[in-house]
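User: Predict the complex with coenzyme A.
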Amino acid sequence: MKTKIVANEIVPKTLRSVSIVGTGSYLPKRILTNADLAKMMDTTDEWITTRTGIKERHIAAPDQATSDLATEAARRALRQAGLTAEDLDMIIVATVTPDMYFPSTACSVQKAIGAKKAVCFDLEAACSGFLFALETARQYVGSGAITTALVIGADKLTAITDWEDRATCVLFGDGAGAAVVRSRPGVRGIIATAMASDGNLGHLLYLPGGGSRNPATAQTVKDRLHFLKMAGKEVFKYAVGSMLSASKEVLKKANMTIDDVDCVIPHQANMRIIRAIGERLGSPLEKYYINLDRTGNMSAASIPVALDEAARAGFIKHGAIVLMMAFGGGFTWGATLMEWRKPEPSQKISSKDASRVRVSNAQKRRFSTNASNLW
Ligand code: COA
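Assistant: Here is the predicted structure with coenzyme A placed in the model:
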């Protein structure tokens, strides 16, 4: 039996309930497989698969910037929500790979889709960025300050990947996911959120060059400071602990247990991290939507892409309680618990989008085969 929810224990009285009313995602066409990587460097499909669960990742074209990926995802989310760009009051893009320092990637998306009245800004919380941006939008929509927000997680991680560092470059990919956020009368939507940060751990996952600390020079480029650096083992340890604590916190806030959760959308960094969390939370892996085998870690894009695929493929059922959890550089981490409702009848999936669902299902089936030996 589901735990009874007392609304004002979960959302402060001043906030109205806020829901995701449409999702969309975009993955670039080019696919780089583990076999391709094995031709480029000293690695093997076996090493990458057993250490991470990743088999392939999508790579943006040289002329595709993060805002181009984000724009595609945004259009699909708006279409599903049955809204237009002119309905948007706010666009937040969570990313660690903005097109450039400024203008913000969100402003570039605004220009591309014609969201004339939207206020636009980027948010940087690495792989936790989408959940942090979703909570930011919830505060604005929930308070009544705005009606409609577009929250995007988008990253072109291959732009900051060091292809000479085999310990990191095999992990990442490019993509974008988007969610339209509104208040939907009579729907609980987002039930609880937990967010946290610890700047003391920043040195374990970071990009040292190009900022005001080490402005770009010929020397910083020569020293490869414009590429992501990571202490993999330490990051692994903190990833498991922090996503566990955030998940427990949101469940506590909602007066629920893990058994009340129907579906989990974890950050798609590593299958071993997800398995460790599943074991410690006591939730079976069948409840977890996994696409990292064909996407790799797409940072802020990982959760919204997985959410969009899972919802469109029917993995998340109408009325399901969904737990999303993320972890990333900073360090930052968080979790969001929500009740999922299908788009309204007026927000039917277009035939173009429906064809993407079939692809998704086929890929998911393939993953089940691949993943059986990991679990
Ligand atoms: N192919 C083959 N061998 C590789 C390799 C690759 N791509 N990358 C590293 N190795 C080697 C190392 O050189 C090391 O060799 P050595 O023992 O001879 O020195 C060996 O494999 C083990 O390396 P290690 O770093 O101990 O591996 P690991 O079991 O910790 O796995 C990660 C490495 C990166 C997969 C793992 O630490 C991880 O997933 N960490 C979390 C990363 C993450 O999720 N970051 C994003 C968070 S948002």
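Confidence is low (pLDDT under 50) at residues 1-9, 345-375.
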